[in-house]
Amino acid sequence: MRHVIAIDQGTTGSTVLVLDEQLAVRGRGYKEFRQIYPRPGWVEHDPEEIWSSVLDALAQALNGTAGSGTAGSGTAGRIDAAPIDAASIAAIGITNQRETAILWDRKTGQAAHNAIVWQDRRTAERCAELKAQGKEARVKELTGLTIDPYFSGTKVQWMLHAVDGLAAKARTGDLAFGTVDAYLLWRLTGGAVHATDVTNASRTLVFDIAKLAWSDELCELIGVPRQLLPQVVPSSGPIGTTRGVAGLPDGIQIAGI
After folding, report:
1. pLDDT tens digits for 37-71?
2. Could you tell me if 86 and 245 are in contact, meaning their C-beta atoms sit under 8 angstroms apart?
3. Distance separating alpha carbons of residues 93 and 235, to the nearest angstrom
4. Which of 4, 97, 192, 207 shows the greatest Cβ crowding within 10 Å of its Cβ?
């Protein structure tokens, strides 16, 4: 019997499901993590805690058990199933909280700043400036989005200017940017793959939805160096394989975002 793993990395916690070939749930795990509020209107997550929550939920799911927290609209509880042989896992899929922005060092994997979460409003003033400059119509033409702190682009620009040295590291290619899907993919592949899917890319304010490609024009306007950006891939299909993930063998395909 083969299985697939579904990782649902949400705003307050991570859920992992193991499904069999008939799509029956054979294991479920859930782990919450901290919400960080540095000041009113600001919301952050620790990327290491996000990753740890995924590993914890994964271990629960493979053991046929679930965490004690509440996942989504249902209450997590024990799944009456035997532990899953990790060698039976055929593929992994990822779904994720969307516009949350993460920057990390390409060599060490260390986060350059806490993740800035989609609810965060710290870039409201910057967005207002862009609107006052008459940029919103062009941004909407290329992205389908309004200029709003909700989206990732201005969050990245804020981090690059708020933390000494980050802007220079971004220009030299030493930093990587990703929404949570890209960060998890990078961790699952042991740093081998830096990619995002088209749907997550479309929520950044720097992605041209007609060309399905990063826009140099928007990167310059928003202040996001191209060197930071992940490869953009289809939502379904082989993207990379696991390497060095606790509880999983190497070589499992990550096949959907």
Report:
1. 999 999 999 999 999 999 999 999 999 765 444 44
2. no
3. 10
4. 207
